[in-house]
């Protein structure tokens, strides 16, 4: 039987198991350290995921073992975890609905970390107090480099994207994906225009402007050496890695908010952040994605 430890998180009691299991073998990073990371980063992460239906990527045996995506909340989920039932059109498992968990508080975040849910993915929209989907409050551009392009090329594209957004009176906040690419988030609340339509049109315009550098189509044959601006992440059915989420890499890298100054000046190796790096950053600078002004560079690293 797995070792079980009962802990109190705020006003909830949780049973955590296998705390000594190494989930990142190359780094010797254990489940206890995963839970500790999410506990300490929670004040900065929770505002970005509260109210958003959750999809997790779970690695019960660690990053070198099998994994699975989970949208439907596990059957053993405590009754106090907020759940919303939403339609599941086109479900690959033949479901009509999915019971999504909503991570509104620290106990829920710790509960999922205790399930070896290393990655947290959320959509660009939230639900209201009755669990009804609201209009998108964010637009995202997912920048994916096609080898031999790297995050350095993503940074150049992100800077041009920032200029184009500003021409329309919009501000974006950049973050690393925690893998090879990056995203730019744009506040969208209160706008009547479809974020998906706007993002597609802008991606196509930038592709025409820089055809040797940018591609707006998903076909992999078009992407070598270019940066794919994935506008389709704004589809309501899709999710994007959440700010401050760990990634399942050999070391515990994190999807990390950046300043635009870092995007313009940093070398690629300087844009890889582990859990420890991120905890040091938030302790010093707070949440760079709290407002578009924070990621402008004036108060950041």
Automatic annotation (TrEMBL):
Keywords: Ligase. The keyword tRNA processing does not apply. Residues 30-288 form the DNA ligase D polymerase domain. It comes from the Bacteria. One of its GO terms (molecular function) is ligase activity. PANTHER family: BIFUNCTIONAL NON-HOMOLOGOUS END JOINING PROTEIN LIGD. This is ATP-dependent DNA ligase. It comes from Sphaerisporangium album.
